[in-house]
Amino acid sequence: MNPGDSLLQMSFPSVMVPTRESVAAFDRPGERLLIATDGVYLEVVRPWIRVVRRIARYDVPTAIPYGRVEAVTQQLCGPVPPQLIAEFRSMARTGHPIEVMAWIVWNALTGAFRIVQLKAKSQGAGHIEGYQRPDLADGEHLIVDCHSHGAYGAYFSPTDDKDDAFDVKFAFVLGDCGHERLSTAFRLCAKGIFEKSALPKSWRGVLDAEVV
Ligand SMILES: [Zn+2]
């Protein structure tokens, strides 16, 4: 095969899922396809997370003699400290009605989490128009991409979908920032996979704790 495609296939391989044993986890950061009996799965590995999800099913009921794969979410960095969610809430409240953005990052070398507020190229009460990605230290990875919606409710807009299309991260939105109880939206983003879910309980706890 030509060198270009050889390189491409080495960096993004496909695996025929065995029937008599489970597939070993991908041993390095990157992505690969797992061809299983019931469809095609994408495995995404980063130092802080491993995600496996089905991304395609077969159009015809032909027999594929491969094994099964379970959907997996392994958060290798451990839970995000709820204190950082409380810090982002403070940023959102202080900034209101202006939208604010922040990254919660995790350092694979030290295990430490921190939150860093982002500078927008231009920002207003509408939506943020582009922002500068912060400088990260060696070993630091984006874990939670946070932004606020000012006076508007929390949801994922078409702009958010576009911004989140290629990342591997959690996305977190705080809305109704002038109200007593802020609205929230939360999802996992992994290379085009968007999966909305309930907030982690400890996050809900610190957000509700403000309302007394
Ligand atoms: Zn948004």
- Tell me the series of helices and strands, N- to C-terminal: HEEEEEHEEEEEHEEEH
Share of β-strand residues = 35-45%
List the uncertain runs: none
Gyration radius, rounded: 20 Å
Structural class comes to alpha+beta
Number of domains: 2
Trace the largest sheet across and list its strands.
Answer: 7-6-10-11-12-13
CATH homologous superfamily label of the largest domain: Cytidine Deaminase, domain 2
Spatial separation of the terminal alpha carbons: 66 Å
Bound molecules: zinc ion
- In CATH's first tier, which class of the largest domain applies? Alpha Beta
Biggest sheet character: 6 strands, mixed
Summed up, the helix count is 4
CATH architecture assignment name of the largest domain: 3-Layer(aba) Sandwich
DSSP strand tally:
13
Binned, the helix content reads 10-25%
Q: Which fold does the CATH topology of the largest domain refer to?
A: Cytidine Deaminase, domain 2
Shape: elongated
Average pLDDT metric: 93
